[in-house]
Amino acid sequence: MGKRTLMKDRYRRFPLLDIEGFKNAIGEMHGKFFPKQPVLNKDVRPGEAKPLPDEAWFIQTLKDKLAHHPENTKEYPFYGEPIYGEPLVGFVRGNDPLMEQYKEIIGPHHFTPWEIMRWQAENNGVTPPAPEDISVVSFVMPFSPQTIKENAAVVDWPSERWAQTRLLGEIFSQTIVREIVTDLMGRGILAVSPDVTPMFNKKRYPKVGWASPWSHRHMAYAAGLGTFGMHDFMITEKGAAVRFASFVVNLRLAPNRQRPEDIHAYCRHYQGLPCLKCAKRCPVEAITAERAHDKETCSQRVGKSVPHCVKNYHIFIYGCGLCATGVPCESGIPVLKTGGAR
Ligand code: SF4
Ligand code: SF4
User: Fold this and answer.
1) Cα-based angle 175, 180, 185 (whole degrees, multiple of 5)
2) Which pLDDT score, from 0 to 100, does residue 252 have?
3) How far apart are CA 249 and CA 181, in angstroms?
4) How many Å lie between the centroid of ligand 1 and the Cα of residue 270?
5) Prediction pTM value
6) Dihedral angle sign, alpha carbons of residues 206, 208, 211, 215
7) Between 267 and 28, whose confidence is greater?
8) Is the pLDDT of residue 17 over 70?
């Protein structure tokens, strides 16, 4: 059981000493405090001991982890309530042209799957596999209906369930990816989770503002799991109130979803339909029809939520997500025809 199960029956007494929260924040900003990377087992040939994992294996493994993992739970006062529901899983190949294009679209700091895999290969003293021999496994974890409902009811700061989901959900996501990566490396298959490597550090870039060198959301778009909304959250079949994760494996996995060409295909406003419900939900007017999502105004507001979460929820985290809840795209793709906002 994880350390957080200590918070089953009570809040932590000293929220400013929320060590896991601090570690999480510093990890995100500076790429530190992550557990050691698993080591590649060079004594077995991939596929020798067990069959090579295929697309169905990854989908089932992730579904099982979300359904049965003991750490997919919130803390007091919601202990036992799942953080996430059933995931969506997609795949994209390392030589998909979009991977190189992201260097233009997001910025040159963004890693290609091959670059991150080369780092892991060199760590383990093996030759990096070619881009066509690697794949990204991307997945979407939907927030629980209780979390969505609770956040939809607030008008200023994130709700308690939302704040817990932001922190515990991130730790949980890193845990299950680490378990899968460790399993694969033990079978002699190179694998890496980019956001727990030392290269993972969030910085402010001239073109895109605050950004990290590996975007789970862009990987999800590439894998056909969703498209971007006015709020810059991604809209998926499970809605916008979701978390994304992704990791890179030395396997040829076949893409299983059709990727829309239009990066805004599921947003009512971008499709010329009345909506902008997300703009109405934003307490600092960071979303407008003219300028879409103002990342700077948004991140300033989100940063200011830390004292609220520490004081009221006894955890060290920031968050908001008001624009992703109480809107037509919160739990699914909105109806994309006139009069169909739900
Ligand atoms: S609330 Fe409407 S305009 Fe905003 S992202 Fe969702 S579908 Fe698009
Ligand atoms: S996350 Fe919060 S501050 Fe940012 S755009 Fe959405 S509602 Fe506004």
Assistant:
1) 120
2) 98
3) 8
4) 8
5) 0.92
6) negative
7) 267
8) no
